[in-house]
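for the writeup, i need someone to sanity check this before i put it in the appendix. the sequnce is what the collaborator sent (i think, or maybe the updated version? ugh). structure was predicted straight from it, no edits. if anything looks off just tell me and ill rerun, i have time this weekend
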Amino acid sequence: MQRWRGLEDIPQDWGRSVVTIGSYDGVHRGHQLIIRHAVERARELGVPSVVVTFDPHPSEVVRPGSHPPLLAPHHRRAELMAGLGVDALLILPFTTEFSKLSPAEFVVKVLVDKLHAKAVVEGPNFRFGHRAAGNVDFLAEQGRTYDFEVDVVDLYVTGEAGGGEPFSSTLTRRLVAEGEVEGAREILGRPHRVEGVVVRGAQRGRELGYPTANVETLPHTAIPADGVYAGWLHAQGEAMPAAISVGTNPQFDGTERTVEAYAIDRVGLDLYGLHVAVDFLAFVRGMAKFDSIEGLLEAISDDVKRSRELVAVYDAERP
């Protein structure tokens, strides 16, 4: 998959293409439906497929300080899009100047002059241009003027976890923030992932016999609610079953919120300084302060046992 940052990176001899535009944070199942449709449409028309997204998130430019928690960094989104068969990813730097483009100017500047769109694929709620004034109806009108088709793809509706709402990044962020990682997994089609570099912490886990990878998460990361979770620690090309702790470590009167992952049944791991990923499969229990270290150790032992079981069941049920 080709990756471009800014309109100037697009090859000058770029021909017609099928385009879809959006923040696509998380590349959840609704996003996947739209992107797959764009890929299939491109193959039907014999042209490449292009996903257009933005950095930073538009809300941070329009309303500074309102950057939403991110479900996936750009490199992770690119990996997921490549897996769906996308031919090119265009990341547009979202600036104040860019935010002032009218919907008509956006169409000409991006879709017509640079990407030579033959078709554009979007969800029904797609908005674009200054003050989000453009919608799919306006896009279809522009398509008749500039010779491109517009396909509108309905989004899925979630099950019980989402209360029947359409799949959305906003809903997924809310579920993650509430610790409902199983519901988030239903929408994403995979466990929610947090990434970062392993840094040295207080090393209390090592002293207790459960050494953890203390992950310094990327800026604006969507981090689950405080508690203990089952999941995986991805490091050095390996996915290791893990018991994951999120919180301030109330047992030792901590104040800094951390994400720490214990790789179950692994001995002698040295991950300091490495970029790792942590997948949140299921909630195990809320964060608590125990009456004694013995009580804490008993709880950790139960956490590890439960996490091992949950991961094994999930692995067994995966197709």
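The longest strand covers residues 275-285. Residues 2-152 form a domain with the Rossmann fold fold (CATH 3.40.50.620).
thx in advance!!
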